[in-house]
Amino acid sequence: MSDAVRRNETWTEPTRNLPLRFGSHPGRLAVTVALLITGGIALQFASAYTLGLLFWGVVGSAAAWIVVPARGWRRAVALGPGVFGVASLLAGAASGALIGLTLAAWLLVRERRAVTYVLVSVPVAVAVTLAQFFPDYGWGFVVAPILGATVVGCAWAARSLTAAAARRDSAFAQPDASRSPLK
C-alpha cells in the first residue's frame, strides 16, 4: 500500500481523541443520537393535552447536547439553538426553517469545517418549500420526517466534506516521495 493511500485512511473524527470524564466516544455518540431522535419525536407528538411529551422531549433533547462527546464550551453553546430548532417545529411547517439551528449546533459540536455551514441553508430551503405545500400544523407528521432526513443527510455531507478536506490537506502537507519529479 502506498504512503498516499495510507495517509488517506488515517482521518478520524476531531472529537474522537478528546479525554472524556465518563463513557466512551462511540457509546456517548450513540446515546446522543438516540436522545435526539426520541426527544424530537416526543416534541412532535406534544400538544396541550400531552404536556408530558413536551417536557420529556425537551429534557431528552437537552440531555443529548449535554452528553455528546465534544468540548464543553461547544456543548454549552449548542444546547439552546439545538433544542430550540427542534422545538420550533411545534408551531408547524412555517417555523420549520429554524431546524437549521439544530444542524448548525451539530456542526459546531462535531467540529466541522467552516465551509460546511453552507449546508445549513439546505434544511432552511426545504422547510420554506414544505411550508408552501403543508401550511397547517396538522401536517407535522409529513414535515418533521422530511426535515429530519434533510438534517441527517446534511450532517453526513458535512462529515464527508470535512474528511475529504482533511485528507487533501494531509496530502499537500506531506508530499509522497514516489511522486517526486526529481526521481
Which class best fits the helix and strand makeup?
A: mainly alpha
Q: Give the averaged pLDDT, no decimals.
A: 87
Assembly context of the chains: single chain
How far from one another are the termini? 20 Å
As residue ranges, the low-confidence spans are 4-8
Q: Using the alpha-carbon principal axes, give the shape.
A: globular
Largest sheet: none
What is the number of helices?
7
Q: What percentage of amino acids are in beta strands?
A: under 5%
Proportion of helical residues: 55-70%
Radius of gyration, taken over Cα atoms and rounded to an integer in Å: 19 Å
Number of strands: 0
H/E topology pattern: HHHHHHH
Tell me the layout of helices and strands:
Blueprint: H1 3-8, H2 25-44, H3 51-67, H4 72-87, H5 99-109, H6 121-133, H7 140-173
Description:
- It is a single chain.
- Helices cover 64% and strands 0% of the residues.
- It has 183 residues and is mostly helical.
- Helix 4 runs antiparallel to helix 5.
Give keywords:
mainly alpha; 183 residues
Question: Nutshell version of this structure?
Answer:
With 183 residues, the chain is an all-alpha fold. Helices cover 64% and strands 0% of the residues. Helix 4 packs antiparallel against helix 5 (99-109) and helix 5 packs parallel to helix 7 (140-173).
